[in-house]
Specification:
alpha/beta, globular, 11 helices, 13 strands, 346 residues, 8-stranded parallel beta sheet, binds N-carbamoyl-L-aspartate, 33% helix, binds zinc ion
Length: 346
């Protein structure tokens, strides 16, 4: 029995492409299925200015294999020194679709992020004025706050004050991992959406820690308890337009993950659409997959829906995904859901 589902070509509203040899290796994995992606700026050094975003975009387009089409939507990394006028110019030229707020120290390459939120207020005001979206990594970095509570504390102590001070600013809560995140996104009627990753729909914290430590399931924000995963699945599959896909596919070479101090990040670019079809089918919500992966994101960003389509096919044999992608820097392990998946993109 073959079952198939055709949807508008999806977009990824949170993606790490890196640079150099890694960029070369992972870009086709995304471009094969996705038309556009919001490109995270946490390179070393970070993509802070419009000129840096332009140069990075050029490197991405140069790495795109012949015959593939892909539109990188560039993002500026917000620092306490970011110039509101540079941001406005990069937006006006059409280059930049968002600015990214990392609380300093929250995750991989976030040392240049924001410590004093008052210092970035002029940039946020300018963004609200010109309708430019703010993407937020929503975790506090205070060492006294338990890592499993950092998202909920961020919402209360940082996000809500930013929203109240600037209700006209368009915000995406990125890669939410908690019921608190879902509830907060739902409690706001305007200018607030949330992305959800593929892996947070599939794993909870037991997958990382029970029965031996699994470094390839470690990412930030870290996966939480099962009740939080269930809240994410409910939100993603509900059809609520405020929730859409941002894979946060974040490649690290295996030695950097399988280490005494392993890097955070799950690499899901290769099999995301197949895994999502599985998750949505389990919920009896295959008809909501197009909204989540292809429609709700463009609606938040005020962009057109892709004209192209992709078709997902379910067969009676489990799909074989590559275990690893080879890059010039070393192997990258592809996210393993831990169960057979029968879907694939045709
Ligand atoms: C990301 C990375 O590796 O750049 N890691 C991750 O666990 N998601 C950074 C991030 O988005 O937090
Ligand atoms: Zn990320």
């Amino acid at each position: 029995m073959t079952q198939s589902l055709t949807i508008a070509r999806p977009d990824d509203w949170h993606l790490h492409l890196r640079d150099g040899a890694m960029l070369q290796a992972v870009l086709p994995e995304t471009a094969r299925h996705f038309q556009r992606a919001i490109i995270m700026p946490n390179l070393v050094p970070p993509v802070v200015t419009g000129a840096q975003a332009k140069a990075y975009k050029d490197r991405i387009m140069a790495a795109l294999p012949d015959g593939m089409s892909f539109d990188p939507l560039m993002v500026l990394y917000l620092t306490e020194d970011t110039d509101p006028e540079d941001v406005a110019a990069a937006h006006a030229s059409g280059l930049v679709k968002a600015v990214k707020l990392y609380p300093a120290g929250a995750t991989t390459n976030s040392a240049s992020g924001v410590k004093d939120f008052d210092k970035v207020r002029p940039v946020l005001d300018k963004m609200a004025e010109i309708g430019l979206n703010l993407c937020i990594h929503g975790e506090v970095t205070n060492h006294e706050v338990d890592i499993f509570d950092r998202e909920a504390v961020f919402i209360e102590t940082v996000l809500d004050p930013i929203r109240k001070a600037n209700p006209d600013l368009k915000v995406v809560m990125e890669h939410i991992t908690t019921k608190d995140g879902v509830d907060y996104a739902k409690s706001n009627e305007k200018n607030l959406s949330a992305t959800i990753t593929t892996h947070h729909l599939i794993i909870n914290r037991n997958h990382i820690l029970a029965g031996g430590i699994k470094p390839h399931y470690y990412c930030l924000p870290v996966a939480k308890r099962e009740n939080h995963r269930l809240a994410l699945v409910e939100a993603a599959t509900s059809g609520d337009k405020r929730f859409f896909l941002g894979t946060d596919s974040a490649p690290h070479v295996d030695p950097a993950k399988e280490s005494g101090c392993g890097c955070a990040g799950c690499f899901t670019a290769t099999n995301t659409m197949a895994l999502l079809a599985h998750v949505f089918e389990e919920e009896g919500a295959l008809d909501k997959l197009e909204g989540f992966a292809s429609l709700n994101g463009p609606a938040h960003y005020g962009l057109p829906v892709n004209q192209d389509k992709i078709t997902l096919v379910k067969s009676d044999k489990p799909t074989v995904f590559p275990a690893k992608i080879e890059s010039g820097d070393g192997p990258v392990t592809v996210f393993d859901p831990g169960y057979p998946v029968y879907w694939d993109v045709k």
